[in-house]
Amino acid sequence: xxxxxxxxxKNYYSKYRxxxxxxxxxxETLERGLAQHxxxxxxxxxxxxxxxxxxxxxxxxxxxxIQQIDVTQVDVLIKLLQESGPNVHFVLLCxxxxxxxxxxxxxxxxxxxxxxxxxxxxxxxxxxxxxxx
Length: 133
Hints:
Blueprint: H1 3-11, H2 27-36, E1 41-45, E2 49-58, H3 60-64, H4 74-82, E3 87-95, H5 98-112, E4 116-120, E5 127-131
Parallel strand pairs: 3-4
Antiparallel strand pairs: 1-2, 2-3, 4-5
Helix pairs in contact: 1-2
């Protein structure tokens, strides 16, 4: 398993305590997903991995409907990963603290130059939206 896949299995999926056990991938599925979408993964390293973020780049139309889209459904996520637009939405975030999260956001801004950045709280009830322009 890759170091990123191993990090996510140990630090993200192993700590999930919600009701949706169907959203936890097996190691093989996770590795395939990571390999197919390297451009949508951000990894912060400093003496090992400190954080991983997986994001999608959404069109303005999809971004306006993001609260109505179930990003935990695999088929929906596959479609979103194929989309290319000016809005970044994080679908997974695992980090050792706020400093690492901010470093990841800065790196995504520098790499993608998005119009907006968004993410849901871990319980998927609150959406955070931030304009970058």
